[in-house]
Each structure stands twice: as structure tokens, then as C-alpha cells.
Design brief:
- Pfam families: Rce1-like (PF02517).
- The chain is mainly α and about 280 residues long.
- About 45% of the residues are buried.
- It has a two-stranded antiparallel sheet.
- It has helices at about 15-45, 50-70, 85-110, 125-165, 175-190, 200-225, 230-245, 255-260, 265-280; strands at about 115, 250.
Length: about 280
């Protein structure tokens, strides 16, 4: 996959070397800003949930700082929302989390590995009515609200880091970006504040499988559409639908063993989805 997201024209081998050097410099500045800002976010978020938004914006702020310091501009960010490719992906963006949720969580509910519970809601009716009502609400309202944090992460991960990994000729850049994204979450997992199941080491392994697989899919989406917005919307819709509908509807002693982003069934389902996308033109 040959992709040129930088503003440096490539007309010769010297131009190619300059583009690689420029991308590596951008990555250095990005991580130099990301690490301390993330540490600050972790410390504050563990004290009060209000600072979770700061943590989610650490990648975005780091990318903005890098662009300003290196005078890179924003042309490669692809902030235009429109375009045929982006519009074609809208059904996928909204339905992918639903599809994964129904397969993974549905399997856990039907087999009895995880108990289905009706979450507290202003929606009244049978369990099926409550579930569908919450699902539809989160697909729209939840996704819109989730953009606040989703933009912060995606400006950094897929809007900056991924494209620089490609230009820097880092092997398997999409896969690498997913691994980095997963590792970035680990401090809050280790602290027991995010999808920490009954077996911590297993939870970390399964979480890395889940997040790297999802990162592969969301990275492909960003590159094939040429815009960062599909990645932003998919990130937001995933959080809204999976966390606020499927996780909220699951209970039992082993709920975090089988479901959630560190659950066995969710990890295997996302891994299968990533494998499918790697073998097809989808995404």
C-alpha cells in the first residue's frame, strides 16, 4: 500500500528519504507530547471520572502540538465530511458495533455464560422493547455525544500517528497503530478501572487482541475513505453501543471473562472480523 499523506513532494530518492525523515520526526514529537500528557490524564482520571475526557484528548492535543511545532498544516488530516466513499460507509459505521454485539453478547446470553439483564432506563416495556429502545437511542444520540471524546483520540491515532507510521515505512503500520492504541489503555486496566476481569493477565491479552483487531478495521476505514471522520464516528458509535447497551445489558459473575473488550467471545469475534477485512476489499 503506497500512501503519501505528507506535504513533502516526492520526486526522487532524496525526496523519499526526506519524507521518511520528516515522518519520523513527527512521530518523535507526537510521542514526546503524548506520554507525559497521558500520564497526567491517567493520574487525574483515576481520581475523578471528569478527567477521562482529558485522557481521551491526549492523542489529539499531541497531534495538534506536533502540527504546530513542525508547521505541517492540516491538509493530510482530511477533515472533509462529504465524499462518496465516506457516505457509503455510514451504514457500516452504525451497524458494525451492533453486528459484533449481537454475535458476541448474543452468544454469551444464549449459552448462559453471561446473564442478560434489563438495564435501568426511562424506556418502559418488555426487556426486548427496552433493549431496542436503548440500542436505537445510542446509535444516534450516544454516537453524537461520543464524538466529544472520539474526536480527541482519532485526531491523534488515525489522523496523525497512522499516516506518519506509513510515511516512516514502519512495518505493518495499521497493525502497529492498533497495538500502540491498545498499550495506551493498559495503565487504566492494570489499575482495575477499565475492563479488568477476574484474571488480570488474561484480561490484558484478550484486550490487546480486541483493540488491535478493532484498530485494524478502523485504520482501514480511515485510509480507504481518505477522511478521519469515519474513524471518529465508528469510534464514537462503538463506545455508545457496546458500552452503553450491550455491556449494560450483561451481568453475572463471569461477565468480564466472556464479554466486554477484555472478554473471550468479544476478542474472538473482533479477531475474526479483522481477518475478514484483511482478506477482502471491505472496510
Amino acid at each position: 500500500m503506497k500512501t503519501n499523506f505528507s506535504n513533502t513532494p516526492v520526486t526522487s530518492s532524496d525526496g523519499e528519504k526526506e519524507r521518511i525523515r520528516f515522518a519520523r520526526r513527527g512521530l518523535f514529537v507526537f510521542f514526546a507530547m503524548l506520554i507525559p500528557l497521558s500520564i497526567l490524564g491517567y493520574v487525574l482520571a483515576l481520581k475523578s471520572e471528569i478527567f477521562v475526557l482529558l485522557l481521551m484528548w491526549a492523542p489529539g492535543l499531541s497531534s495538534i502540538f506536533s502540527r504546530l511545532l513542525l508547521r505541517e498544516g492540516k491538509a493530510d488530516l482530511s477533515l472533509k465530511v462529504g465524499g462518496r466513499q465516506t457516505l457509503k460507509k455510514l451504514p457500516f459505521i452504525l451497524l458494525f458495533p451492533v453486528f459484533i454485539g449481537l454475535i458476541a453478547y448474543g452468544t454469551a446470553w444464549v449459552t448462559g455464560l453471561v446473564q442478560y439483564v434489563t438495564p435501568d432506563s426511562f424506556i418502559k416495556g418488555s426487556p426486548a422493547v427496552v433493549f431496542m429502545g436503548l440500542l436505537l437511542m445510542q446509535m444516534v444520540v450516544g454516537t453524537i455525544v461520543g464524538l466529544i471524546g472520539g474526536i480527541g483520540e482519532e485526531l491523534g491515532w488515525r489522523g496523525y500517528m497512522l499516516t506518519r507510521l506509513i510515511d516512516a515505512r514502519v512495518p505493518y503500520p495499521i497493525l502497529t497503530s492498533g497495538v500502540i492504541w491498545g498499550v495506551w489503555h493498559l495503565p487504566v486496566m492494570i489499575a482495575g478501572a477499565y475492563y479488568s476481569g477476574p484474571y488480570p493477565v488474561l484480561s490484558i491479552i484478550l484486550f490487546m487482541i480486541s483493540i488491535t483487531s478493532f484498530g485494524f478495521i478502523i485504520g482501514r476505514l480511515r485510509l480507504t475513505t481518505g477522511s478521519v471522520w469515519p474513524a471518529v464516528f465508528l469510534h464514537a458509535s462503538w463506545n455508545a453501543i457496546i458500552q452503553d447497551v450491550f455491556d449494560a445489558s450483561s451481568g453475572g459473575k463471569n461477565v468480564l471473562l466472556w464479554t466486554g473488550e477484555s472478554g473471550i467471545i468479544v476478542a474472538l469475534t473482533l479477531l475474526a472480523a479483522a481477518w475478514f477485512f484483511s482478506k477482502s476489499r471491505a472496510g
